[in-house]
Every structure is written in C-alpha cells, then in structure tokens.
Amino acid sequence: MAEPGVAELIGRGEEALTTGDWEGAREAFAAAVNDEPSWQALDGLGRTLWWLGEVDRAIDHRERAYALLRKSGDAPQGARIALWLAREYLEAVGNQPASNGWIARAEGVLRDAEPGSVHGWLALTRGGLSADPDAMRRHAEAALEIGRASDDADLEASALALLGRAMLLVGEFDAGVAALDEAM
Question: Please, which contacts does 82-86 make with residues 24 or more away whose CB atoms are closer than 8 Å?
C-alpha cells in the first residue's frame, strides 16, 4: 500500500481536529510537515499543539505557516493567523508589543483585500483589546454588521458578546444582558 500524500495527511489532520482527536491530528500534521512543510501542514500542527497545551510550539508553527502563507498571497488566511498570533502573544505569553505587531500585520495584509468576515474578526480583536467601552462598542458593532453580512455565525456571536460587555460597562444593563443572551 502506498504512503499517503501530503494532501491526504492534511485532510486526516483536519478531520482529527474536528473530532477532538489531538494525538491523531498531531501524527497526521507532523507527517505532512516532514514530507513537505506547507503552510497548511504547519498551521494544522500549530492548531493541534495549542489544543495539546504546547502554546510556545503552537506559536512557532503558526508563525512559520504565516511566513509561507504570505508568499502565496492569501490575505484573509494570513490575517486570520496573524490575529490568532496577536491573541496568543497577549493572553498566553503576556507580550503586548508582539501582540500589537501581529495586529498591525493583519491590518497591513487586509489593506487591499476584498471585504470579508476576516475584517470583522480584526474589528472584534481591536474591540476586545480596548479598555474604552465606547471604542469597544464601535468595534463590536462593526464586527456584528460584517458577521451578519457574511453569514459568519461565529463572528456574529462573538461580536454580540463583546457588544453586551461594552453595554454593561457603561451601565446599559438590560441591553447588555440581551446582547449576551443573543450571543448564547
């Protein structure tokens, strides 16, 4: 029987991630990286390592995936990885400057890209990092509008949650709770 190709290994890895089989995903993605270190294989392995609690290695693999991806010109996917890296550098590593740098990269990558849901994720990230409830609300409303327009239910729910938080911070209790309830 022939050895599986890289595309098949990546497919196996994605399927394993979907079912929560972290070890199966690690095995498939690692084999794909060993055969051909494509951005898809590196990204899949990075996401898997995150689920396994290996945050530093996850960041390393996703940074390598981003570097390869940038050469392919897929701006939305590059921005998604950059936003993930921004969040991890802030929340897991505590490195605000690195986080800001990754957000700036996402913005730069998207500067000339066609509008899409990733622009909403960028707005959501900006809002989530804001300490100003009014700025948080503006970013959440922008993300919500984009999420609804692009039929991105995850973005819509996340934007509603951030909007509810912003409303609660300024004392709009009923509206804030309603937004949080809708997000659920």
Answer: 82/106, 82/109, 83/118, 83/121, 83/122, 83/125, 85/59, 86/125
Provide the 8-state DSSP code for 91: I
Q: Pick from 110, 164, 113, 168: which is nearest to 140 by CA?
A: 164
Greatest Cα pair distance, the chain, in angstroms, is 65
Angle value at C-alpha 96, between 92 and 97, nearest 5 degrees:
130
Which CA distances in Å does 69 have to 58, 91, 102, 123, 177?
Answer: 16, 24, 15, 22, 40
Residue type for position 152: D
Helices (H), 22-74: 22-35, 39-51, 55-72
* pLDDT above 50: residue 121: yes
Joined tokens for residue 122 = 């960028």
Phi and psi at 105, nearest 5°, equal -65, -45
In this structure, are residues 53 and 92 in contact, taking their beta carbons and an 8 Å threshold? no
Dump pLDDT digits (tens) for 57-87.
Answer: 999 999 999 999 988 888 899 999 999 999 9
Instruction: Quickly tell me which residue has 């505590």 as its tokens.
Output: 94
Are 117 and 152 within 8 A, CB to CB?
yes
